[in-house]
Structures are given as structure tokens and as C-alpha cells.
Amino acid sequence: MTTTHPLECTAVPQSQSTEIANTILDQLGGRRFIKMTGAKTFLATDQGIQFKLPGGALKGINSVIINLNASDYYDIYFHKIKGADVKEIAVFYDIDAESLRQVFTDATGLETSLGYNPNIR
């Protein structure tokens, strides 16, 4: 099995890539996630979503890539990017949707919401 490096994106139909990215963002907490973490510069990739984080995350993490893999689980890549230097800080494979928030919080130290109510976005 070959894997594509998470920073390499290939073109896919806009609706498919956007749908996957929006689903991941919803599973992270949607607008609450964005407000709590300060996440910005969202990009729908061929397999998921990529976004930046402001300062304040553990170990200087400022870039996150979450890809949907062939097993219908998520692979999460945490990076520290400074100029052209990209340092991979942590990688988690085969994470289920229910664990996305906890893995994100454990890796970055950033809470995804004050409280979770699935009926409010």
C-alpha cells in the first residue's frame, strides 16, 4: 500500500472534496471549534481538510491535516511550519470520528469547545 504525503494534494471533484472537509469540520465542532481554537485558512484536500492554528498550541503546532483513509477512519498530521521548514510533530492513524476532538486536544493542548451540544453548530 502506498501513501501520499499529506502536504501533496491532487485535484478531485469540488463537491466530493468539499463534502469530506465539511464533514470533518462538523465532527470537530464546526463554528465552536473555530472560535475555541482560532483555526483559520481552511483548505479542502483530496482526502480531507487542512488548516492553520495560531500560536499557543503545544510544541509549536501550527498546521493540521486530517485525511479520510481507505478504512473510513482518519489519519491526523500535526506540523510546525516556519518559512520553508516543515517539521512533523505527531501523526495518528485510524482515528474514529468520535475520537477526533480528543486526539486534537491531546496533541495541541487546545480545547475544541466549552461544551458539546450536537444540535448547535
Look at the helices and sheets and give the structural class: alpha+beta
Radius of gyration, rounded?
A: 14 Å
How much helix is in the residues?
A: 25-40%
Biggest sheet, in brief? Answer: 5 strands, antiparallel
> What overall geometry do the principal axes of the alpha carbons give?
globular
Number of DSSP-assigned strands:
5
The number of helical segments is 3
Low-pLDDT segments, ≥5 res: 1-12
What order do the strands of the largest sheet run in, or round the barrel if closed?
1-2-3-4-5
Element order: H for helix, E for strand: HHEEEEEH
Can you tell me about this structure?
The model is unreliable at 1-12 (pLDDT under 50). Helix content is 26%, strand content 30%. It has three helices and five strands, in the order ααβββββα. By secondary structure, it is of the alpha+beta class. It has helices spanning 14-28, 31-37, 100-108; strands spanning 40-44, 48-52, 63-68, 74-82, 85-95. The longest helix has 15 residues, at 14-28. It has a domain at 36-108. It has a five-stranded antiparallel beta sheet with strand order 1-2-3-4-5. The chain is globular, with a radius of gyration of 14 Å.
